[in-house]
């Protein structure tokens, strides 16, 4: 293969975005210059990208970025790839409070920072804190920040001693350790995906410890697996009320919001 058109005709998976990445050209430019002949350096780079993609490396890790809500985020193999289902948490949070008032919001287990950074960009009045147990992951989140966010290192609430918030949000690990879907997620950090035999170990830890970190009338908002909502509702019922359940854009159970009693 020599020209852009040769590659476009090849049937290679994700050939258009891979060409765009290797040649730094938009889709429209690829079409306009379809007879452009790649030099040896460009062919080498493109073929390396194609090989990585064919062996399963997600495109987001090859490009180093992924769109989420209205922003682009830097991602690395140390971070999960942002998914559209998590955008639901942003919508719920933004509808919960007056954007012109000041609220303390915690993004627990921030990963690449998508939740805290997006909310902070939409509502700069709010005071955002974002935590993660991985310093490498937290560094990526800091690079993604658009506003003044407090980044704190530690495992769950160990990162926020003696701090309280009006809203705690988390997209924690919630996949069962033997779930077959993990075969399709082997390139992503397993510590951000798997949470014990039933996938609820981390969610249980968050629910048990959240009350001492919530202000009066504070809220806890969690993303979860499509089949976990009933169990999570039972876990919340001891210390929370006004429990609201939400479906994602594929009409699957995906999030739950509860207010501290």
Give a quick summary of the entry.
The chain has 261 residues and is α/β, with parallel strands linked by helices.
Could you give a short account of the major beta sheet? 7 strands, mixed
Q: How many domains make up the coordinates? A: 2
Stretches where pLDDT is under 50 for at least 5 consecutive residues are none
Report the count of strand segments: 9
Spatial shape: elongated
CATH class bucket of the largest domain:
Alpha Beta
State mean pLDDT (0 to 100 scale): 95
Question: Looking at this structure, what is the CATH superfamily of the largest domain?
Answer: Vaccinia Virus protein VP39
Radius of gyration: 21 Å
Helix proportion: 25-40%
Question: How large is the count of helical segments?
Answer: 10
Question: How far is the first residue's CA from the last residue's CA?
Answer: 65 Å
What structural class is derived from the secondary structure elements? alpha/beta
The side-by-side strand order for the widest beta sheet comes to: 5-4-3-6-7-9-8
Shape-level CATH architecture of the largest domain: 3-Layer(aba) Sandwich
What series of H and E elements makes up the topology? HHHHHEEHEHEHEEHEHEE
How is this structure best described in words?
- By secondary structure, the protein is of the alpha/beta class.
- It has helices at residues 4-8, 15-23, 27-32, 40-54, 59-63, 87-96, 114-122, 135-144, 201-209, 229-236; strands at residues 65-68, 71-74, 104-108, 127-132, 149-153, 165-170, 214-223, 240-247, 253-260.
- Helix 2 (15-23) runs antiparallel to helix 4 and helix 6 crosses helix 7.
- Helix 8 links the parallel strand 4 and strand 5.
- The protein has a seven-stranded mixed β-sheet, sandwiched between helices. Strands 1-2 form a two-stranded antiparallel ribbon.
């Amino acid at each position: 293969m020599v020209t852009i058109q040769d590659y476009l005709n090849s049937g290679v998976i994700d050939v258009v975005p891979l060409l765009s990445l290797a040649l730094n050209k938009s889709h429209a430019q690829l079409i306009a210059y379809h007879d452009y002949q790649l030099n040896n350096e460009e062919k080498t780079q493109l073929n390396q990208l194609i090989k990585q993609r064919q062996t399963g490396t997600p495109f987001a890790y090859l490009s180093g970025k992924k769109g989420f809500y209205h922003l682009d985020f830097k991602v690395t193999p140390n971070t999960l790839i942002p998914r559209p289902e998590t955008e639901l948490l942003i919508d719920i949070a933004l509808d919960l409070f007056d954007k012109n008032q000041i609220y303390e919001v915690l993004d627990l287990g921030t990963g690449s920072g998508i939740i805290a950074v997006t909310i902070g960009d939409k509502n700069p009045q709010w005071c955002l804190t974002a935590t993660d147990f991985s310093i490498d992951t937290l560094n990526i989140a800091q690079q993604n920040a658009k506003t003044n966010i407090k980044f704190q290192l530690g495992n769950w609430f160990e990162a926020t001693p003696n701090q309280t918030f009006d809203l705690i949000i988390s997209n924690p690990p919630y996949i069962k350790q033997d779930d077959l879907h993990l075969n399709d997620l082997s390139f992503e950090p397993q510590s951000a995906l798997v949470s014990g035999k039933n996938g609820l170990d981390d969610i249980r830890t968050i629910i048990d410890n959240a009350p001492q970190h919530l202000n009066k009338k504070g809220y806890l908002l969690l993303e979860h697996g499509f089949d976990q909502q009933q169990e999570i509702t039972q876990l919340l019922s001891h210390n929370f009320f006004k429990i609201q359940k939400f479906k994602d854009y594929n009409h699957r159970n995906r999030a739950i919001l509860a207010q501290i009693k």
